[in-house]
Design a protein that fits this description.
The structure is a homodimer.
Chain A (H helix, E strand, L loop, with lengths): L3 H22 L6 E3 L6 E3 H17 L4 E4 L14 E9 L1 H6 L5 E8 L2 E9 L4 E6 L4 E3 L2 E2 L12 E4 L1 H6 L2 H9 L2 E3 L4 H9 L5 E6 L1 H13 L3 E3 L12 E6 L1 H11 L1
Parallel strand pairs in A: 3-4, 10-11, 10-12
Antiparallel strand pairs in A: 1-2, 4-5, 5-6, 6-7, 7-8, 8-9, 12-14, 13-14
Helix pairs in contact in A: 1-2, 6-7
Chain lengths: 257, 257
């Protein structure tokens, strides 16, 4: 059976291949469809990327389950036993379409429910953030340091539109208290900015494919990945998630309690 | 007397020099002070850049007035007669400090009140967006096309934190109606994204140095730079400004009327 270390090497190639595909096609004609409403897009490139990734994963890890955003993976995943790959073929599809920037390919491997491998590729910069449990987090070949443990009033915070405009008063107070508020429209890019210390916190409603890779990398760097009141989260559910330094997480619990 | 075209050539060099200075110093030790409150920063590098720019402008255009953010320019500018340079030595100081990314050097020349030259340097990417009235807008040596005239529901909108959290109900409706909301923390970066069509609109409270260069470039590309209800703005005042496609500007007037 293939080792986790070998899977890691091959998975990096797969993420890069999907990134290359998105990069080459972003200036060409492709079809854009809406999903739940006019702000929720999917393109033929998302679907192509998903099939490309899933086909490759089936080859290198045939007994695994695959959970992926656009539905070409395994339909029903109800348990996390064994190997489960969680895939976002293009995270930030709106930015892919409108900006040709600020989008990512994300992938993670969970083994018996625990995050073991994580990948976020910032396609335009070509920077691949990747990690293997116990081995730290790298950007391309460079190892990342743990971000400084700053508090909320020293930290930039990213929060999504819905929470900022329509969230409860605690969320608004948190957004007001941070040293600045940012919104990039891609969980992958926002996760990258937290793990590199450019943001001190990220709060958003996340689906499994938005969360899986960032959670792996953030926890490996000693960051907190929890609900905003400090409870554990289930990667198979939609969650209101906080990714933050330990101090920001404490400061936020003070505000909501 | 030096021609506008010659001033343009030299001004580009000055902006690049200031960008280089910020780039070289951003990883070093420098002093950070707060201005009006803990979210409003100024560093010794802002001040260095301002002196560098102002000294050079005095050499190439000695009879001009200079209005600059950190106060080394002419103290009192009450009229826009003749040449007025408006300078932001580092726009997005918070990002400069916290992110080492997403900040800009901005400069503009107004002649008898009209925008004539404009410069926004995205320091990290090294892309200089510049224009001379009647000659179009360039990124480095490449001429930019006019952005597509999309409406609000097809456009990403950038709006600052204060307006998003505490603005009136019309502003919230505008933020909700756009296809997506973004917040980058630098007027310069947000202006760049509007003139390149990555955003369809930007709404913020802007001081003269936040507005001067972006206004010049946006108007040269046929974009609207007005108050949100369509009135003209005075570059010497603080303004609530909309920079947008013509269609977004119409859609927004529909919402507020």
């Amino acid at each position: 059976m293939i080792s986790i270390k070998e899977l890691d090497q091959q998975a990096q190639q797969i993420v890069r291949q999907a990134g290359q595909n998105a990069f080459e096609k972003m200036g060409e004609d492709y079809q854009v469809d809406t999903k739940t409403n006019y702000t929720d897009l999917v393109t033929t490139i998302d679907r192509e990327n998903e099939q490309l990734i899933n086909n490759q994963l089936r080859k290198i890890d045939p007994d695994s389950q695959i959970l992926s955003e656009e539905g070409f993976g395994d339909r029903q995943i109800t348990n996390m036993q064994g190997h489960v790959w969680i895939v976002d073929p293009i995270d930030g599809t709106m930015n892919f379409v409108k900006q040709h920037n600020n989008f990512a390919v994300m992938m993670a491997l969970y083994v018996d429910g625990s995050p073991v491998l994580g990948y976020i590729l910032d396609v335009i910069s070509g920077r691949l953030y990747h990690g293997r449990r116990g081995d730290g987090v790298y950007v391309n070949d460079k190892k990342l340091n743990q971000p400084a443990n700053l508090g909320l009033r020293e930290s930039l915070l990213a929060m999504n539109r819905t929470l900022t405009l329509s969230g409860n008063s605690s969320l608004k107070e948190i957004a007001q208290e941070a040293i600045g508020l940012r919104m990039y429209g891609s969980a992958g890019i926002e996760m990258i900015d937290v793990i590199t210390g450019q943001l001190g916190a990220y709060i958003s409603n996340l689906k499994p494919w938005d969360l899986a890779a960032g959670r792996m990398l953030a926890e490996e760097l000693g960051l907190v990945v929890k609900s905003i009141d400090g409870r554990s989260i289930n990667v198979l559910s939609s969650n209101l998630v906080l990714v933050a330094t330990r101090q920001v997480s404490r400061d936020i619990r003070q505000i909501i309690n």
